[in-house]
Write a structure and sequence with these properties.
Blueprint (H helix, E strand, L loop, with lengths): L3 E6 L7 H14 L3 E5 L3 H5 L3 E4 L28 H11 L4 E6 L1 H12 L4 E5 L15 H22 L2 E6 L6 H9 L4 E3 L7 H13 L5 E6 L12 E6 L5 E3 L2 H13 L3 E5 L11 H20 L4 E6 L2 E6 L12 H8 L4
Parallel strand pairs: 1-2, 1-4, 4-5, 5-12, 6-8, 6-11, 7-8
Antiparallel strand pairs: 2-3, 9-10, 12-13
Helix pairs in contact: 1-9, 5-6, 7-8
Length: about 350
């Protein structure tokens, strides 16, 4: 009996999502199943906003950034009868399985719906690489490549003008992007959420560089990093989305002002923002996303629900969505210790 598989993409866009969609569609068709897409994440199911998916609609999208299905921060549990409406609309559309591609918020919605009897499968997606139970998420490799290139570019300006340059990168609760790109770009200091820091210690590092003739410094900071001098995240606004998250941002400017005040050294800030998640995915991310999509299509065909595709070493495995609850994957302490070797 042929199955109808629904697919949605939630949370922030990410290089590699279209490769996942393509893989789910191609493998499902090979297995004799149909696939329909839902626009704008859970909003698409709530509104029955369907995006037709067939072999032609996914042709030539493997290298395209963003998501052809669109995304949003819609949380069905914030709407009256939202979860019930999701289940009902999937039934009305004869959808046998739902594949949810997203980060922790999307996957937790999927888990809650599974507890209500909805047949769901998760595919982990985030440039932050902070999802537990999988060694890598697609999008991360593209993001760190983009940030590394940006560090290379500002390096020449910093050196030419004897400036301290702060580069603020994404990473709400973890510093994976900051650490990997900082190492690759030769940053002089990397500041991450996992390790609170002292502004004075950063200033001391910069002063030591000046004493040995290095009159410039590159400091990479994750948006969720927190100085010991303050007890809260630096945010752009106190508004929260439907999952209760504030929009982080501004830690780079805070650090820059403090460095100039305490050292007198000219300091500039570069905030990469959405450029980190935009553009074409790297070859690694295209391949990983394709493997995830094929595996999810096989799980859908086999009736393996309530689970997420995961990469362990070089092997694809499945893990229960319920194991993701209230977890985050911090940067490996040993990796950060290696990064510190090159500070200053």
């Amino acid at each position: 009996m042929n199955k109808i598989i629904g697919i949605l993409t939630g949370d922030g866009d990410c290089p590699g999502i279209n490769a996942v969609i393509r893989a789910v569609v191609r493998k499902s068709l090979n297995l004799g199943n149909e696939v329909i897409g839902f626009r704008k994440s859970w909003k698409g199911i709530l509104e029955k906003d369907i995006y037709p998916l067939d072999i032609n609609s996914v042709s030539d999208i493997i290298g395209k950034g963003g998501t052809i299905l669109g995304s949003s921060r819609t949380n069905p549990f914030k709407y009256e009868d939202g979860p019930e409406k999701v289940v009902r609309h999937l039934r009305d559309l004869n959808v046998n399985v739902l594949v949810a591609v997203g980060s922790i918020d999307t996957l937790m919605v999927a888990e809650k719906l599974y507890e209500r009897g909805c047949p769901v499968i998760g595919i982990p997606k985030t440039i932050d690489n902070d999802l537990p139970l999988t060694d890598r998420t697609f999008g991360f490799d593209t993001a760190i490549s983009t940030v590394t290139e940006a560090i290379d570019r500002v390096h020449s300006t910093a050196e030419s003008h004897d400036r301290v340059i702060i580069m603020e990168v994404m990473g709400r609760y973890t510093g994976w992007i900051a650490t990997y790109a900082g190492i690759a770009g030769g940053a002089d200091c990397i500041l991450v959420p996992e390790k609170p820091f002292s502004i004075e210690d950063v200033c001391a590092l910069i002063r030591r560089r000046h004493q040995r003739g290095k009159d410039f410094s590159i400091i990479v900071v994750a948006e969720g990093a927190r100085p010991k001098e303050i007890d809260h995240f630096v945010v752009k606004t106190n508004r929260v989305d439907e999952f209760g998250h504030k929009q982080l941002g501004g830690i780079g400017s805070y650090i820059a002002e403090e460095i100039e005040r305490l050292t007198g050294f000219e300091t500039r800030v570069t905030i990469l923002g959405p450029v980190q998640r935009g553009g074409a995915p790297t070859a690694y991310d295209r391949t990983l996303a394709t493997l995830f999509g094929v595996k999810a299509a096989e799980m859908a065909d086999a009736g393996e629900f309530g689970k997420m595709v995961s990469l362990k070493g070089n092997h694809l495995v499945t893990v229960k969505l319920s194991e993701l609850i209230d977890k985050v994957k911090p940067v490996d302490a040993d990796l950060y210790d290696i990064a510190e070797v090159f500070f200053g």
